[in-house]
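Posted in: Structural Biology > Protein-Ligand Complexes

Title: Requesting predicted complex, C6P in pocket

I'd be grateful if someone could produce the 3D structure tokens for the following input. Sequence and ligand are given below.
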Amino acid sequence: MINAKKIREDFPILKRKVYGKPLVYLDNAATTQKPVQVIQAMNYYYENYNSNVHRAVHKLSQEATVEYDEAHEKVAKFIAATGMEEVIFTKNTTESLNLAANSLSQQLKKGDEIVLTQMEHHSNIVPWQQAAKRTGAKLRFLEIDGNGELKLQHNSATSGMCNRTSSDLQLPQLMSKKTKIVAFTHVSNVLGTINPAKEIIAAAKEAGAITVLDAAQSVPHMPVDVKKLDCDFMAFSAHKMLGPTGIGVLYGKQELLEKMEPLLYGGDMISEVSFQDAKWNELPWKFEAGTPNVAGAVGLTAAVDYLEGIGVENIHEHEKMLTKMAMEKLRQIDELTIYGPEAARRGGLVSFNINGIHPHDVSAMLDAEGIAVRGGHHCAMPLAKLLGITGTARASFYLYNTQEEIEKLAEALETAAAKMKKMAARTA
Ligand code: C6P
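-- Reply #1 --
Done. Output follows.
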């Protein structure tokens, strides 16, 4: 199991105080903190071999190129991709999903359908809305139930069994021969729901659709194997997995990437250019136009090394323990509503509201105690609307969070709820 207290020593920011109180950082779904190993690797790059890549023959450029290329290999191994050809560096999950939507939409026509879910982040809705507008394709949405889980039909013989396989999932009625793309989040950033990605992907395959997995909230927190899932594309961000901001990943199956058109044109993505035409470079460089984020790639490599050193499965177990504890404690507060499924069926985050208090005010009250959570719609406005709320307060956990921090969160929320109750009684 994880020794969070020891891990915290690697994170300088976790030593700081906020309003004189120790920082309790519970906004990891938005972005994670960085260990010294990541910070030092990036500093070392800038102090010792800062250079452009794939361009010059000088020593610095050679060293930077090796590190940059190896970062692709490192990420490929981390997600069990075949090789670096399948790993494209982008700016973040958002850019990865835009790249996928833009390139895949070139194969869409009127009458085709794109299936999403009702729990998507704007990054996995808006690019598809635009693709649909451009092509005349139609958007359809897999619905969620009262627990915040997808309504999927299972064969009655196996429903209720723990070890369901992909073949147990009947083709959801939404998916048909018209379905060309199925794009969905692996873990909801609002509800915490872990979607049965393998089953949905298998069902989409049966319909003949291309699958795009938004793994922004899964890759940092649990083992994700693109081979086992058999997804066609997958997107995630370095900054949510101890790495720097400004670098993300689009995984794609090589045979599909070979057929896809680039989103951006310019330096490094070409093999040959004449005044009238150009030929594209080999993968993954075909999709990485211009000077890339070399320092970001160096930081991402260090982040993957760090995560592997701890073990992503161990991180998942640690988060499950914290989430279970948080939900048990928060459930004892009468005025508090928790959204999403049981702890065992969710990632390491809890969204909630306290009756009568706006989520921004809940966040501000926690902030005054040094506790950082996020309040709002979490870039999932359609979901908030569906739930009939303006937003939620959300506590999200990572490998360095401790049980003491969960206790502090629960205590601060109890105090906030009690204050609210008193105020309500006074005005009644
Ligand atoms: N969610 C949150 O606080 P970017 O911003 O491109 O790195 O990630 C976008 C994104 C896409 N999908 C999911 C499921 C996400 O959670 C996010 C980022 C953050 O919930 C910031 S809005």
